[in-house]
Amino acid sequence: MTPTFRMTYPTAMVLQALAAGHRYGFEIADAVALRPGSVYQVLRRLEDGGYATGEWEDAERAHDEGRPPRRYYRLCRSRAEPLLERARTRFPGLDAVPGQASAGRDGPALDEGSA
Amino acid sequence: MSSRTPPLLRLLALLAPGSRRAAWIREWSGELAHARHVGAGLSTVYLAALEDATGLRARTLRHGSVLMDVRYALRSLLRRPGFTAVVVLTLGLGLGASVALFSAVRGIALRPLPYDDPDGVVMVTTAFRGHFEATAFPASEPEYLELEEENPAFEELAAYYLGESNLAGTGEPRRATVVQATANVLDVLGVEVALGRGFAEDEDRPSAERAAILTHGLWLEGWGADPGAVGETVRIDGRAHTVVGVLPPDFEFPGGEPDVLATLRIDRADPGGRSSHWLEMLARLRDGVDIEAARAETRALLARWEEEFPDRHGLSPEGHPALITGVREAMTGEMEQPLTVLAGAVFLVLLVACLNVANLLLVRGEDRRREFGVRTALGAGRGALVRQLLVESGFLAVAGGAVGLGLAVAALRVLPTLARGTLPPNTVLTVDGAVLAAAAVLVLAVAVVFGLLPSWAVDSDVAGTLREGGRKSTAGRSRLTFRRALVVVEVAAAVALIAGAGVLARSFGQLLSVDPGLRVEGVALVDLELNPASYPTTRDVASFHAELKRRAEDRPEIVSVGAIRTAPLGTGGGWESVAVPGETPLQEGDGRNWTVQYQVVDPGIFEALGIPVVSGRAPDAGDAEGSMPVVVVNRSAARALWGEKDPVGRELQLGGFPGNTNPLMSVVGVVEDVHQTSLDREPPPQIYVPRAQAGANYGGLGTRFATVVVRTRADAAEALTVVRSLIRDMDPALPVASARTMGEQVGRSVGDRRFLVVLMGLFSGAAALLGAVGLYGLMAYVVRRRRHEFGIRYALGAARGRVVGGVVGEAALLLVMGSLVGVALAWLGGDLLDGLIYGVTPRDPAALLAAPLLLTAVGLLAAWLPARRASAVDPARVLREE
């Protein structure tokens, strides 16, 4: 039996942010007003628990911008859905997390600086 | 495009777990580059990276290796309770002995002394060349004064006399140990009083008021720590002393354990006799002068005196030198050799314990080869397995250390009681911070060494291990040889220790068989000092003793009563120079011994002590004040002073210097020698002067204090009760001290030897037991290993007895090899025991023979038990398992 995932406030916020489409650690931190370090703690737990996966952004795009690729995170919907439910039940104000105004599901993150 | 990892990030990456490090660097390089790209602050990124790395590391620890190792180790050890218990107890024994010894060495030899700059404080004694006592002779008043005035090496020189006196003014009159000292004694030691003041500069002149300084203990006992004690009057032997101060609680006196310090009056204008040696001395060395320099300067000074005053009886470099000893060595020097011997014993016990544990762990390592093989096959690295073993040995070492610490604390609590009279005064034996730190270091060393040892069992040939079922291998045979070697070393160490203990035990036996020269059973002793206030003259004192004798001998159970200044085998004893008229008085270099123990006695003493009179007669009631002065000498004195000539009828004078006013005494009898100081020292020359006449010698030296000796037909302890009640009837205010039987007196005189023998016996017993356990373990392993072979041999018709005999024979071979090495070790180390033994040599053949025989017997018994199992092997079963 899978051990119960501890549902803390930062965990709930990060889950909601991921569900809203935010992908990069610092972006999530901005959206939920948490310290980046705390956000990454949660992301690691979610990743180790199989609730989220980390992927590298498109290498070409990064190369074009003259920088190494970043890692972004996505929820594994099927596994994460019950967790998200728990989070929303526990912390009803979660829906207030602003979504990521991005176009496609598989697309890379939006340009930085956009709202 | 640059892909170099920033140095700070590389540093932070070290915090991340190794397995995730590469990905981690990649991820955070990306974030850093992005932040730089958008102009965001890098510090935020670095802080987040730091938090992420440490978080990942913490998660690894929580779920990962070390905790798992700890849980696994605990389970593993608890699954084998017998093994764990034996290892922990064995380690506990070795570690406990080591901790106790370290504590003892610290408490006895290394503790800080409560003096200002103790290295600058020395004891100064004299000696007489050719005198059998060799050292630690007191000085006379003129000798002290001359040294004090002229020795350039001494900043201050104090003189003192330590003795028992009657003390009144603190409630019940009681006996107290009093140090009479010159006024500068506390300056020499560098000690400040805790209350009041020290002695003033001229307070030791004859004209000054007598002053006393209380020790803390006496102040608590007699005054309940009342500061008002300062200024009060106490009477020491009837003489009034004003209390001027109280010493601090940690005060120690180098020469003994006084209750009170009192001023010692020396008349500098008219000091006592040159040859009346009674003052001990303490000096503080001048700044910049060390002991060697002080010794050289003193020698030079005495040489100058010898040249300037050839006829003066005084200190001289050869015949009557002044000896300087550091105060620490003087206080603890006697313990140095016994401590060294005990340290050697403890080392051997620890060695045997550690070898035992090593053997046990190697066996366990062997047994777990299959387990390690499986784990290696499943991906565990050698490092992980070694870490596991270190954790296990850490547990064992800590548990063993805890047991050892408990044993040490218990032993240290009991030791001072057992060693009463042997340990220097004020010795505190405790497990303090330094001892705990040393114990921790020892435990750590044990944990690491024993943790690494079984890793030998972790084979690199995994497949081979699994195939063989972990049973046998070439490497396994070499491990067995190593284990046999460990057992041989164990046996050697145990044999060496048992041999040493045997020598000490035989020596003790020899000592106890020495005829002290007196009667021991049915003799009781009490100490009395008749103070001048109630007994002003020597005649009064002599009358008291005569009356006590009369009353006591009226009792049917009492055979005889007498009194003597210093009873045999006690402490103290006054040495005096003597002159034989017509012969050369005391001069160094003429080879003859002119110093004797001066005894003051009452009639009946020789009968009471059971000392035979060999010629002439003993003193009797007719030897009163005013009649012809007589003296009795012992055989040693007769030989020393007159050679083979019969001394009866010859004359003798106390004091060997010109202008001596002591009376000429006629020798009326010769008595047999007694062991006056201790059983292992030659009987000294002694002269016995009747108390009634002794008042004329040096104004009554030695006439007040006496040990009353009572010989009884009944129990000596009961006689003590009788004598005490008689004394109480005669003078209720007279304190009676140190009531004991002669048996107890003899026992106390050998107490330190007995103590050492008991300790060595315990250690050698422990080593023998551990050695036997080690041998048992090895043979049990051998039998298990060869079960298969035994089964086949039985199946082929071999006699069980021969097989068992072979196993026992293997054990016997190891015992013989170990014994040979052990005897060689004992032979080589024999000199360590020199000075501690009596009547045997350090390489006593009986002890050297008995030790290996004893251990062989114990070892064969230990080997027999597993050997029997060899005879129980069922060949059918073994062949089925094939």
**Average of per-residue pLDDT values of chain B:** 86
Structural class of chain B: alpha+beta
Sequence of secondary-structure elements of chain A: HHHEHEH
Report the sheet-strand fraction of chain B: 5-15%
Rg of chain B is: 37 Å
Structural category of chain A: mainly alpha
End-to-end CA span of chain A: 41 Å
Topology:
The complex is a heterodimer of chains A (115) and B (882).
Chain A: H1 9-19, H2 25-32, H3 36-48, E1 52-56, H4 59-64, E2 71-75, H5 77-90
Antiparallel strand pairs in A: 1-2
Helix pairs in contact in A: 1-2, 1-5, 2-3
Chain B: H1 7-13, H2 21-38, H3 42-63, H4 65-79, H5 81-110, E1 121-126, H6 141-150, E2 154-168, E3 174-181, H7 185-189, E4 195-196, E5 211-214, H8 216-223, E6 233-236, E7 239-246, E8 260-263, E9 280-285, H9 291-308, E10 322-326, H10 327-367, H11 369-377, H12 382-418, H13 433-452, H14 462-467, H15 474-512, E11 523-529, H16 538-553, E12 558-564, E13 575-579, E14 595-601, H17 605-609, E15 613-616, E16 630-634, H18 635-642, E17 651-654, E18 664-671, E19 686-690, H19 691-694, E20 705-712, H20 716-730, E21 737-741, H21 742-749, H22 751-785, H23 787-795, H24 800-828, H25 845-871, H26 875-881
Parallel strand pairs in B: 3-8, 5-7, 14-19, 16-18
Antiparallel strand pairs in B: 1-9, 1-10, 2-3, 2-6, 2-9, 4-7, 5-8, 6-7, 11-20, 11-21, 12-20, 13-14, 13-17, 15-18, 16-19, 17-18
Helix pairs in contact in B: 1-3, 2-3, 3-4, 4-12, 5-10, 5-12, 5-13, 10-15, 10-22, 12-13, 15-22, 15-24, 15-25, 16-20, 22-25, 23-26, 24-25
Would you mind describing this structure in some detail?
The complex is a heterodimer of chains A (115) and B (882). Chain A has 115 residues and is mainly alpha-helical. Chain A has helices spanning 9-19, 25-32, 36-48, 59-64, 77-90, and strands at residues 52-56, 71-75. In chain A, helix 1 (9-19) packs across helix 2 (25-32), helix 1 crosses helix 5 and helix 2 (25-32) crosses helix 3 (36-48). Chain A is globular and about 45 Å long. The termini of chain A are far apart. Mean pLDDT of chain A is 81; it is low at 101-115. With 882 residues, chain B is an alpha+beta fold. In chain B, 51% of the residues lie in helices and 14% in strands. Chain B is built from 26 helices and 21 strands. A 6-stranded mixed beta barrel of chain B has the order 2-3-8-5-7-6. The radius of gyration of chain B is 37 Å and the shape is globular. The interface between A and B is medium-sized, with 22 and 24 residues.
